[in-house]
Sequence to fold (124 residues):
Amino acid sequence: MEKYEIEFPLNTSSSLLYMRLSTPSGLGEWFADDVFVAQDKFIFVWEKNEQIAFLKENRKNEKVKFKWEDSNDNEYFEFSIRNNPVTGDNALIITDFAENSEEKEDAIQLWKKQVSKLKSVLGL
Fold:
């Protein structure tokens, strides 16, 4: 598996962005059709199909890290908020894994589509 990162500049506050990355209601606005949570287990729903991810790390206004239930131990997906101290602008950094370059390109296109929905939700 190949690890990759994608950066999306987002001119919004860290706290507003963090809410959309870490809560079921926030994730349900852009990432999945619906999201349910039970302790550290997040249940993501797309077109009536469910996929379970475990919350592995959660740092307020900084980072949220998930591991899919059926993925290898060293694979995860992560949302990080990076602040540029000079400009004050924030960026969303998405870390994910892909098996090959074709899967990586497909995944990047999907992330771009999802982040476009996130920008719309944020009014950007």
In short: The beta strands are 2-10, 34-38, 41-46, 49-59, 63-68, 77-83, 90-98. Residues 2-122 form a domain with the Alpha-D-Glucose-1,6-Bisphosphate; Chain A, domain 4 fold (CATH 3.30.530.20). The chain is about 30% helix and 45% strand. The chain has a mean pLDDT of 94.
